Amino acid sequence: MRMLLNVKFPHAEFNLAVKDGSVGKKMDRILDELKPEAVYFTEQQGQRSALLLIDLADPSKIPALAEPWFLIFNATVELRVVMTPEDLKQAGLEVLGRKWSS
User: Fold this and answer.
1) Number of folded domains that form the chain
2) Domain containing 66: what range?
3) Where does the source fall among the domains of life (predicted)?
4) What is the CATH number of the domain that holds 35?
5) How confident is the model at residue 102 (pLDDT cuts 50, 70, 90)?
């Protein structure tokens, strides 16, 4: 199951890691562990943020996705299940539409 991991970094903790030179090492450590399919860094509502696409085979691994961000950066983490266009085609929307439209 693909998950979109939305990480929002608090200014104080992230600024400290930038100032002491540890931000790259910390980020590399987390990304090497999680092995995301894709990572994008952006801004959301004035906060530094990261969006990661992760293939999650086992829901019991969700804490392993979130805890590094919580513990290292005191970040806010949101998880969303996402689908590719191929996944959506396999969802059977037409069948569901017929079933639930009457």
Assistant:
1) 1
2) 2-100
3) Bacteria
4) 3.30.70.1060
5) confident
